[in-house]
Amino acid sequence: MARSVPTFTGQVDGDGLGVTLIHEHIFVTDPELDVNMPHPEWDEQACIERAVQTLSSLYERGVRTVVDLTVIGLGRDVRRVAEVAARVPVQIVAATGCYASSVLPPFFCLNGPGLVVDGPDPLIDLFIGDITRGIARTQVRAGMIKIASDGAGLTPDVERVFGAAAAAHLRTGVPITTHSDAAARGGTAQQDALARLGVPLDRVVIGHSGDSLDLSYLRALADRGSYLGFDRFGMEHVGRDADRIRMLIALLDAGYVDRLVLSHDAAVFSRVTPPSWRKEHVPNWHMTHLFDTVLPQLRAAGVDDATLHRLMVVNPRRVLTGGA
User: Fold this and answer.
1) Most buried residue, 170, 235, 280, 305, by most Cβ within 10 Å?
2) Containing H/E element for 298?
3) How does pLDDT run along the chain (324 residues), one tens digit per residue?
4) What is the pTM of this model?
5) In this structure, which CATH number among 3.40.50.300, 3.40.50.700, 3.20.20.140, 3.30.360.10 belongs to the domain 5-321?
């Protein structure tokens, strides 16, 4: 059943989502390091102003919704993002989840079923609480669940996060999106784990699929029902946009238009790849790159506006609402 989607500024019906960037970040920080080793490029108020400018420029390009996949492990601060959301015309969707690609933070390693501090899994309570009650004692509820595995594969800690995400999805219906290692065909193991846990794979986005040059791998993921995240446009240090466009067109030609979503995985500010580094090494890695560069290239390659509408409007809406 289709549902409305929570945003920082209220519930939005599926038809109100419009053009959607489904995998972005507003601010990626590290609260402990920020206190003990402040980053010289971080100025909170200046970064908030930059975020307002960035999201306002997206609105001018037709974007109506941005999904902020900043979760535990990436410095999520919904109060800070709420300051931005209150000042921009773009709707922002928050996420719950835990970015732990191999090992969980110490608290979770010691607290939970059968652990030193035995009891219910706090990850499950965190995820479900973020969705049903609100994040960090605010009224902002999560509209997506973000989890990760990387080169180490599904370690025991990662499997625990996947289990908590599955429990939250089955309780609430909120979709799951992943960080995957495309080079290791990591999306396959992610699908296997989530399917074993009872998650319908058509409620899952296998993130960073667009980094793969293996068409058979991508087709296999899509054939199981999941969406493929071509969500790193501009991120040239891990792959060329030319290759992403080539693989995207190959999938479109093979009939997978309903299984693809586009985005950048960009940030207004990220401590791990700060603005000075991005400016020098990946100058196109920003949230307007799709609209200024990539979509015109797709049009020039023969991709029509109806197809782009499905990629940018229809498919993200189906992911977020579970509807048609």
Assistant:
1) 235
2) helix 295-300
3) 358 999 999 999 999 999 999 999 999 999 999 999 999 999 999 999 999 999 999 999 999 999 999 999 999 999 999 999 999 999 999 999 999 999 999 999 999 999 999 999 999 999 999 999 999 999 999 999 999 999 999 999 999 999 999 999 999 999 999 999 999 999 999 999 999 999 999 999 999 999 999 999 999 999 999 999 999 999 999 999 999 999 999 999 999 999 999 999 999 999 999 999 999 999 999 999 999 999 999 999 999 999 999 999 999 999 999 987
4) 0.97
5) 3.20.20.140
